[in-house]
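Human:
I keep going back and forth on a fold encoding question. Comparing notes only helps if you start from a blank page. Show me how you would write down a chain together with its backbone fold. Write it directly below this note and I will take it from there.

Assistant:
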Amino acid sequence: MEEEKNIAGPASVKEGHRAGFVNIVGNPNVGKSTLMNELVGERISIITSKAQTTRHRIMGIVNTPEYQIVYSDTPGVLKPKYKLQESMLGFSEGALTDADILLYVTDVVEDPEKNADFLERVAKEKIPVLLVINKVDLLKDNTQLEEIIDKWKKRLPNAEIFPTSATENFNVTNLKHRIEELLPQSAPFFGKDALTDKPARFFVTEIIREKLLLNYDKEIPYSSEVIVEKFEEKENSIHIMAVIYVERDSQKGIIIGKGGEKIKKVGIEARKDIETFFGKRVHLETFVKVEKDWRNKDNKLRAFGYIE
């Protein structure tokens, strides 16, 4: 993977080539990241059972000689409580303005009236909207599904509806084919060998952050941020130094754990996934620092990539 994003140059493009931005939006914890990974075929967005996992807008690019699809996973829509969440909502709202196709993802247990203001904006979209009702594997019978579809038809009458199960890969292929059919004719936006617009070190931070979500409870994962201070890549290995920022001294102690056991566990789990992701041996060093109230500081949010 290249450290910088790979933008398409003026290379020759097959006649009739199609390309477009397919933006994935919806409320937290409905399976947007799981669906993104199924559509892209790579582990681009981190997946845990906890809400607010995705903080950035993450692109995953699918290329064939005939088309280029630029999928974009966004943070779950929520009412902001601090500046970090304002930035996250900005990523989601921005996805409404630059899409060629919009995927609105819900699931079989979500109330269609949740975040009605955002849903009203989706209903007014002039571009194709595909409503993905995820987690249908949780339903007992088709009658339940029909009732859910009827409710959503009233909220998004112009949307095409795709009942799916991203975890079971049910109906995802049909969704892919419909997206391909709806793509406008266009030259590619990125190089045809590009997988994402994010640099390599971004995925290191995402993998480490996933391990924080999986290994700690309550506020700890949401008060944490990860920065890669060193990413030294050689032919067969990568040396990485990563800093985990928290907001309070007490949180630093919890992350490190007694005798450093907790942070050691996070490092081992993250290193294994990073090695799988890059296909190279990885030497990972992790440190923990306190940056008080970073979620409400513009300068820190800018440094962490949440504000341009």
Summary: The beta strands are 18-26, 58-63, 67-73, 101-107, 129-134, 160-163, 225-233, 237-246, 281-290. The chain has a mean pLDDT of 82. The first strand starts at residue 18 and ends at 26. The radius of gyration is 20 Å.
